[in-house]
Amino acid sequence: MIIVGNGHVVTRDSRNPYVPDGAVAIDGTKICGIGRTADLRKRFPEASFIDAKDGVIMPAFINTHEHIYSAMARGLHIEGYAPKGFLDILDGLWWNMDRHLTNDLTYLSAMATYVECIKSGVTTIFDHHASFGEIKDSLFAIGQAAQEMGVRSCLCYEVSDRDGADKARQAVLENEAWIRHAQQDTTDMLAGMMGMHAQFTLSDETMNLAAEHKPDGVGYHIHVAEGIEDLHDCLKKHGKRIVDRLYDWKILGPKTLLGHCIYVNAHEMDLIKETDTMVVHNPESNMGNACGCPPTMEMVHRGILTGLGTDGYTHDMIESYKVANILHKHHLCDATAAWAEVPQMLFENNAVIANRYFKAPLGVLKEGAAADVIVLDYTAPTPMNEENIDGHILFGMTGRNVVTTIANGKVLMKDRELTTVDENALMAKIREGAAVLAGRINGYL
Ligand SMILES: [Zn+2]
């Protein structure tokens, strides 16, 4: 047993939202008590103790849209790469990269991403993977890394026709194999979805193939209307808007996650809402690619289950929170916008999304919930309580304030030190892998 105590406990449980001088008791993979530190230590005298040193104890973060395959892009130089817009960025950078990823490099990309997740207090991710250099077993390579690093992962491979029908088929089969494998997982740490890149790289034949091979009980994870080009393509080729096409292919539903949804109209939002489909917003990525600002506030107000992700741009959910907060204020010319909606997306909706795939309650500290707990090194300069905690997080913290990360009852980081791997040795290996990838992309390896 473990007690994490001497902290300000933020539970996200409305019945008991905030415990000053609080503690969380963990038994195995679950939380078994929340209360005052002294009380819990008396109740569980045999438990080992992690001292939060008057910092903040809260549920670990959930990231509902990640891209492990992008890990080795940081600082990458590609000869002749001079993108003029979003499609050039996809083609010249991301698709170029993923064509050179073999499973050994996919594994290292996953390890790199998981290190940053743990160091930012993220213990559950929904990843959207591509490695057209080696498709078969790529999700299993990530799954291996997920298990080694202890991060709960819902994985999928982004099926696309961009490298031909044969590779699209392999991608569908990889999703199917992974989903069936994850469905046998008894640890509640692995899950799978049928990943799809975006409708503009998916023919009707491939849509059909994916539908035929999708096991029951899971949905799709697909980019929707990230760029205006995606909408134009759909109108031109199929004579309908994107969400209509997905609806016609029965892709929408409570288990399906739509990334972005920038160019969706009121009718499409109605379809998303009626089918209880999930949406994930990635503010930094949308801004970085100059793709536009999605109608996220409207989607939340309409009751669409909208979560917050990072699209691989960062692995720090507080960073995503900060940027979503100002993006929508700026976009709507309304300084009062987004105060409540973004924390709702991050702290409530991401948990609801995650629990459509994982059984143990996530994103909350209460008895019986998953023991996914983080400690942040934060000393409040003003009074802190359940009413204003989000203001303290938004303006006072970043992912780097996370000092301790626990997932499924296992301590993955303590006092900023990873407990399961030698971080420096691992990073050296990942840098070697990144050099190999850069060499392949630029044609000298
Ligand atoms: Zn994405």
From TrEMBL:
The name this protein goes by in its record: Aminohydrolase SsnA
Source species: Megasphaera massiliensis
Domain Aminodeoxyfutalosine deaminase/Imidazolonepropionase-like composite: 22-47
Encoding gene per record: ssnA
UniProt entry keywords in alphabetical sequence: Hydrolase, Metal-binding, Zinc
InterPro entries: Amidohydro-rel, Aminohydrolase_SsnA, Metal-dep_hydrolase_composite, Metal_Hydrolase, MQNX/HUTI_composite_N, MTA/SAH_deaminase
Record domain Amidohydrolase-related: where: 56-411
